[in-house]
Amino acid sequence: QVQLVESGGNVVQPGRSLRLSCAASGFTFSNYGMQWVRQAPGKGLEWVAVISYDGSDKYYVDSVKGRFTISRDNSKNTLYLQMNSLRAEDTAMYYCARDHAFGYGYYFDYWGQGALVTVSS
Amino acid sequence: QSVLTQPPSVSAAPGQKVTISCSGSSSNIGNNYVSWYQQLPGTAPKLLIYENNKRPSGIPDRFSGSKSGTSATLGITGLQTGDEADYYCGTWDRSLRGWLFGGGTKLTVL
User: Which of B33, B47, B99 sits opposite A35 (nearest CB)?
Assistant: First the structure.
């Protein structure tokens, strides 16, 4: 069965960095676009970033451009989110989600359980 | 304020029907598929409807989706207390080159 398991969430000081990982199993990871979505405490869902199945296309929400980098290692079936220059407003639960086969921007059919990132001094 | 507009809350009695709207523009809903997600308290979101009106395996036919122009609607019939959750619409925006979620709608089953 399809599984997505995030890791790397932590408490970090403003201005510091953190890398989230999302380990995928149960499907051919290299065939699917992948997404990161976050949810601040008590707030709605906010899309963060997308990466195409082969890593050639990447897009970000404006608020993280230049600070966050999405990447993937298809040999390890793992999705990453490198987060630099973290701010208090980046505090959220971060979910990875599977998008469409050989595409992206269609729908998210599987989600991980989330990784909590808290940015606080 | 979200680019996709949803009502903050809706409510109805058990067994009744409710609809949740999602309004956008030609750069998003008007030219792309819409999907809907259910988020029960304390859990990850779950796909309810994809490609405007299709249900993934395991989603009961009490849930339905439709799209007309730049708006989409989620319908839920035969409401159950277990349907109490937050519901989000989502779609790609070709101008922003990014995914959009609506602000979310909290469903209360009275």
Answer: B99
